[in-house]
């Protein structure tokens, strides 16, 4: 699997990406995220590619996004994490999350922590994040779609 930043030539992959209605309760379509990134340079769409297929998508936010959840300036926020429903159950989300710390460290050397906000009702995602080393320190916020659990992953300082 390869993690890479979105480029205009990836548009066909984005247009083919499919989410089910139940997934859309907790996340946004990649196309919407890319539109938002055009007006916010701190929102960076990331594609997880397996065998030339876009299997997982998310946005890294180094701008105002993390400030809603932490006062730590050295933090990056994962937004809109999803896996195309046709590829769920194959371990792609877990693999993408396992590659993410090295990806973040190589592109954002000053970053010491990755954070995310997950809906309290999205227990499947919570379990995935915990398996991948994200910790719940009891921090909660209200979001547009309900209560959110703030989870964090500390990055090693070398």
TrEMBL record:
Which GO terms label this protein's molecular function in UniProt? acyltransferase activity, transferring groups other than amino-acyl groups
Q: Which UniProt keywords apply?
A: Transferase
Carries keyword rRNA-binding?
no
Establish whether keyword DNA-binding is in the entry.
no
Output the InterPro entries linked to this UniProt entry: Acyl_CoA_acyltransferase, GNAT_dom
What Gene3D superfamilies would the database entry show? 3.40.630.30
Domain (N-acetyltransferase) spans 1-156
Q: Which Pfam families match?
A: Acetyltransf_1
According to UniProt, the name of this protein is GNAT family N-acetyltransferase
């Amino acid at each position: 699997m390869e993690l890479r930043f979105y480029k205009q030539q990836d548009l066909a992959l984005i247009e083919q990406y499919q989410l089910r209605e139940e997934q859309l309760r907790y996340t946004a379509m990649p196309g919407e995220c890319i539109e938002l990134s055009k007006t916010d340079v701190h929102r960076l769409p990331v594609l997880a590619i397996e065998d030339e297929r876009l299997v997982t998508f998310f946005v890294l936010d180094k701008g105002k996004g993390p400030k809603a959840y932490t006062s730590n300036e050295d933090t990056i926020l994962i937004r809109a994490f999803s896996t195309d429903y046709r590829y769920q159950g194959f371990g792609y989300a877990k693999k993408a999350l396992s590659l993410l710390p090295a990806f973040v460290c190589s592109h954002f050397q000053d970053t010491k922590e990755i954070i995310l906000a997950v809906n309290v009702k999205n227990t499947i995602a919570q379990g995935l994040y915990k398996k991948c080393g994200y910790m719940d320190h009891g921090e909660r916020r209200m979001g547009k779609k309900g209560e959110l659990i703030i989870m964090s992953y500390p990055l090693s300082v070398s």
